[in-house]
Specification:
alpha+beta, single chain, 316 residues
């Protein structure tokens, strides 16, 4: 959320023609760690060296990372691409998704991408292929602030769940539709598909009646972005691993303010979604600054978002 290469993979013309799309059958199961990480203004806004951002990825033991806010300050007329710099330091592969300030870095070869660059195809050591889509959805208006009457970018205040859903659709619905259109273009490959991102919107599985009755959210809201992903056949990895949002809220926004700060609202807005055949979630962890809110600890923590890493098993 916004308040405020060495490129090892070379995508050839053959990839654009889709000549590498045939799935390879492999008998042994394969484990993969898929991460989402908003690095905060090109990794520079937290006043930490880039190595600290890299430490977060290393601590997560990630294999594939969808990075948001990868473009840092402009220097010599060009914005710096932190995702590319991170990939270089790790000797990983990198894909710049363009003007959205997002990128994908991967331990394994990136061999293809979708026409609008929402997704990349990655070849695993076994020869299997998977698709990773990475997004950073619109940060304003931010409906939890609207509901809680917290001023933010002159957005109007709202009161009901119906208003929250309508405002969320106006803010992000067009992006969600474009993402899902690109996803549909690769479903026939018959391979696992992951969606990582900073959604800038909570989960419909978190703002429930039970959570509202426990006074842990203002009201029950079927947040439309996560609903759309669920309806498209995706599983929220963190909620798959931790079904009870009262026991494991999994807050990713934000480690930089107190949870009782009246000018903020802590929530889970960063996600790893899992879809496609022959893939299951083994576990999911939050990466952050303190054990009360994270499973993997890095201090000092360099971002205003905690990361999320999902361990998945591909068994065919």
């Amino acid at each position: 959320m916004l308040r405020k290469s060495l490129t090892v993979a070379i995508v050839t013309s053959q990839c654009f023609l889709g000549l590498f799309n045939s799935p390879i059958r492999v008998d042994a199961a394969e484990t993969l760690r898929v991460m989402t990480f908003n690095i905060w203004g090109g990794g520079e806004s937290g006043n930490q060296p880039m190595n600290q951002t890299i430490k977060v990825i290393q601590a997560a033991q990630a294999d594939l990372v969808g990075i948001q806010e990868s473009h840092g300050e402009e220097r010599n007329g060009k914005k710096q691409d932190a995702a590319r710099a991170i990939a270089e330091k790790l000797s990983w592969h990198h894909f710049d998704q363009g003007d959205e300030g997002t990128g994908v870095i991967s331990r394994y070869s990136i061999v293809n991408h979708t026409p609008k660059k929402w997704g990349v195809e990655v070849e695993l050591p076994s020869g299997r292929r998977v698709w990773l889509f990475n997004v950073h959805f619109m940060h304003t208006p931010y409906q939890p602030y609207q509901l809680l009457k917290i001023p933010y970018n002159d957005a109007p205040f709202i009161t009901t769940a119906v208003e929250a859903v309508l405002e969320a659709r106006k803010a992000r619905g067009h992006q969600v539709a474009r993402l899902l259109k690109e996803v549909e273009g690769v479903r026939n490959h018959g391979t696992p598909i992951f969606v990582t991102g900073d959604f800038n919107e909570p989960s419909s599985q978190d703002w429930t009646d039970a959570v509202s009755h426990a006074n842990c959210c203002p009201l029950s809201v079927p947040w439309p972005t996560t609903v759309a992903l669920h309806e498209a056949g995706f599983v929220d990895a963190y909620r798959e691993a931790h079904p009870d949002p009262l026991k494991k809220p999994g807050y990713t926004w934000t480690p930089i303010t107190a949870e009782d700060d009246p000018a903020d609202r802590h929530d889970r807005i960063d996600f790893v979604f899992v879809g496609g055949p022959h893939v299951r979630v083994e576990k999911a962890e939050v990466v952050g600054e303190r054990p009360e809110r994270a499973d993997i600890i890095v201090t000092p923590y360099p971002s205003d978002h905690r990361g999320v890493v999902a361990t998945v098993v591909i068994d065919q």
